[in-house]
């Protein structure tokens, strides 16, 4: 390969597939491999790493499970978009196995989102407040369209994340939000749940408008608690319906 940014060190020790994974991840972190970049062919990778093609396949499969790489039938190997929803697949599966996962997830969201809101309140300008209030009005208009509402909800929170001026916190908050989407999908289709979120959002914006960090943190933490409670209620309702359906099929 002639691309100087794609520098590979020959693999010499076992387990070789893990070393291939480590090197490819290093290239992604360094920016030598960017979202949607196409990698060299399987044969070229094997020659560059000094390993067999089955080893390359094993490494690619591992990175595909992590959401870092993707393969297209007959079209090669590509870096994924590296968006949170692709990278968090394994964690979403883990959450689905843990009875207490929802509670612990929202405990983390309260801490992180609350801290972000407190910091955002100190930086919020009148223009930011206007933008957030505009998003709330758009949310009200989309109350009958849960999918549109969820997109606007994400935009609302991401604007607050940006005000905190800490990319790491923003990424952490976005990742936690993405992890919770699977649990919240049914709950977020309820008009009552959306109405409560609108009330919560208005309280958050009022605190931001006053540049009151303590009030903003409190309002955001209460919002996270309300979302947790509606999500738990939705999960329980789904379980009850499933149990009744199973009983009906058995009788």
Strand percentage? under 5%
Roughly what percent helix? over 70%
Domain tally: 2
Report the radius of gyration as a whole number of Å: 22 Å
How do the strands and helices of this protein lay out in sequence?
Layout: H1 16-30, H2 42-49, H3 53-65, E1 69-72, E2 76-79, H4 84-87, H5 89-97, H6 101-123, H7 126-141, H8 146-163, H9 167-184, H10 191-209, H11 213-250
Antiparallel strand pairs: 1-2
Structure characteristics:
Arc Repressor Mutant, subunit A, DNA binding, 2 strands, Four Helix Bundle (Hemerythrin (Met), subunit A), 2 domains, 11 helices, DNA-binding, WH_DNA-bd_sf, HTH gntR-type domain-containing protein, 3% strand, mainly alpha
How would you describe this protein?
By secondary structure, the protein is mainly alpha-helical. The chain folds into 2 domains: 16-82, Arc Repressor Mutant, subunit A (Orthogonal Bundle); 88-236, GntR ligand-binding domain-like (Four Helix Bundle (Hemerythrin (Met), subunit A)). Helices cover 72% and strands 3% of the residues. It has helices at residues 16-30, 42-49, 53-65, 84-87, 89-97, 101-123, 126-141, 146-163, 167-184, 191-209, 213-250; strands spanning 69-72, 76-79. Helix 6 packs parallel to helix 10 (191-209) and helix 7 (126-141) runs antiparallel to helix 10 (191-209). It is globular and about 60 Å long. The N and C termini lie far apart (65 Å). One of its GO terms (molecular function) is DNA binding.
């Amino acid at each position: 390969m002639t691309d100087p940014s794609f520098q590979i060190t020959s693999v010499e020790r076992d387990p070789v597939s893990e070393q291939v994974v480590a090197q490819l991840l290093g290239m992604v972190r360094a920016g030598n491999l960017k979202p949607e970049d196409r990698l060299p062919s399987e044969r070229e990778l094997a020659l560059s790493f000094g390993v067999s093609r089955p080893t390359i396949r094993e490494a690619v499969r591992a990175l595909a499970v992590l959401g870092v790489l993707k393969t297209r039938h007959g079209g090669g190997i590509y870096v994924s978009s590296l968006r949170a929803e692709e990278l968090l697949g394994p964690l979403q599966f883990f959450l689905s196995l843990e009875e207490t996962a929802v509670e612990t997830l929202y405990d983390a969201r309260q801490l992180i989102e609350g801290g972000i809101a407190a910091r955002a309140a100190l930086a919020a300008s009148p223009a930011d407040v206007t933008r957030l209030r505009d998003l709330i009005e758009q949310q009200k208009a989309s109350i009958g369209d849960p999918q549109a509402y969820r997109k606007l909800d994400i935009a609302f929170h991401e604007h607050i994340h940006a005000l905190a001026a800490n990319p790491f916190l923003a990424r952490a908050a976005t990742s936690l939000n993405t992890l919770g989407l699977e649990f919240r999908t049914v709950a977020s289709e309820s008009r009552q749940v959306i109405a409560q979120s609108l009330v919560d959002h208005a309280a958050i914006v009022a605190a931001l408008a006053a540049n009151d960090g303590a009030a903003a943190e409190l309002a955001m933490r209460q919002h996270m608690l309300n979302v947790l409670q509606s999500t738990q209620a939705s999960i329980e309702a789904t379980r009850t319906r499933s149990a009744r359906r199973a009983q009906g099929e058995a009788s």
